[in-house]
Write a structure and sequence with these properties.
Layout: E1 2-6, E2 9-14, E3 17-19, E4 22-24, E5 31-36, E6 41-47, H1 51-68, H2 73-89, H3 91-102, H4 106-130, E7 134-137, E8 141-147, E9 150-154, H5 160-173, E10 177-181, H6 188-199, E11 207-209, H7 214-223, E12 229-233, H8 236-248, E13 252-256, E14 262-265, H9 271-283, E15 295-299, H10 303-315, H11 334-349, E16 353-356, E17 374-377, H12 384-387, E18 394-400, H13 403-412, E19 418-422, H14 426-433, E20 440-443, H15 465-471, E21 473-479
Parallel strand pairs: 2-6, 9-10, 9-12, 10-11, 12-13, 14-15, 14-19, 15-18, 17-18, 19-20
Antiparallel strand pairs: 1-2, 3-4, 5-6, 7-8, 8-21, 16-17
Amino acid sequence: MSRFETRTGVIRDDTKIYVNGQWVPPLSGTTVDIVNPATQSPAGRISLATAADVDLAVKAARTAFKTFSLTTRKQRIGLLQSIAGVYSARRQDLADALTEELGAPAKLAFEIHAGGGLRHLRAAIETLEHYVFEHPQGSRTAVRREPLGAIGMITSWNWPINQILSRIAPALATGNTIVHKPSSVTPFTAHIIAEILHEAGVPKGVYNLVDGTGLEVGAAISLHRDVAMMSFTGSTAAGIEVARYAAGSGTRMHRQPGGKSANIVLEDADMEKAVSECVQRLMLNSGQTCHAPAHLLVPLDRLEEAEKIAAQVAGSLRVGDPQTDVHLGPVASQRQWNRIQSLILEGREEGATVLIGGEGRPQGLKKGYYVKPTIFTRVESNMTIAREEIFGPVLCILSYRSEDEAVAIANSTNGGLVAYVQSASDERAARVAARLEAGTIFLNGVGEDAEAPFNGMNAHGREWSEVAFDEFLDTKTVIHRRAM
């Protein structure tokens, strides 16, 4: 990464793309500024590459696959360990870049965002050490798991480090090569990750990074007939479009959709603990988390108690400059800010009650894409804010009269990515979880597990853990003439 001078100061120059082990300028295309959401000033610049650049990247990946697919388990473990070592040395660089491009508070950026990437690398190393790539089936047959080829990856802007490493780690561990289009909202961390892979000794062509728009670069990767699989994270609508492109070229699909996750607080739960944790978890990363508990479902006769707790917690959260000790920085972009403001207004107009927050910036913040921590209550399940993924620091509280009604409300939302259940009884929480249509369910305040499968119901494939390895492999059956 280099830097250059502008009227607003020194900013990042990430105008080259990474193809076949080299940083090169795109064959053609324009440059665009990347805006720091806390200051609304340019923080850097990238190039918007074209389909011609994608073609070169795919060719490099296909060529590299011929040898990288034949590497041994020991060689790939060594490579991942080298990547983890360089990553650890560059962890602060990643966190600093993320604060600039996403507006994540510095502590959150270092501990959770950058820390999550390292966890995925370590989990991949551990899984690779014992993963079974071949096993006998009967006396004459061997079943092998072999890498797919060149993997196309499109990653999202809200947790960019996590999304990149949770895919790159298993893809490399299983012997695949990669053509990656990061989000144009948060490209800085992707460029640093490319530098890390290069320094760690990833062979040329094994990883390629091509910046650009979804309509140009994203479509070119998805439609390319030499791409073996598309791995996509983003909105449900965009994922459907990528899947449509991939289907046209016969490419298999690996996709994480968006979500509108419900958090059911049963009547026997510790309301103070359950509601406080829900608000804090929703507000983390300024609400820009696909599996945030955006719906808080509480018993009708405890609604007022829940409202009071939620308002107190939200009111205690500090919003401001992400370089300082705050809970929330800005949201990622002007577009995201506008969308959140529009949905907050629509919630009011449809009759929901604003307990705290609302439209506009928090008091004292005149610049930056800051959103007030907002709590809606008396929300009905047919309201727009109950059905749309707001993707901001906005919590909706809904009430229910019975456990059956709570389950029905939770299952009526779009996505089916995750759900949450709170109860004094782990056994009761588990019984309710069995009725919920969600790919991952968190019981009684537990956190993520990088060694467990993750994704939504009816999604294309799973992420994390040994199951993620399965997604990046194909099955080959070899039948021998005689018993082995």
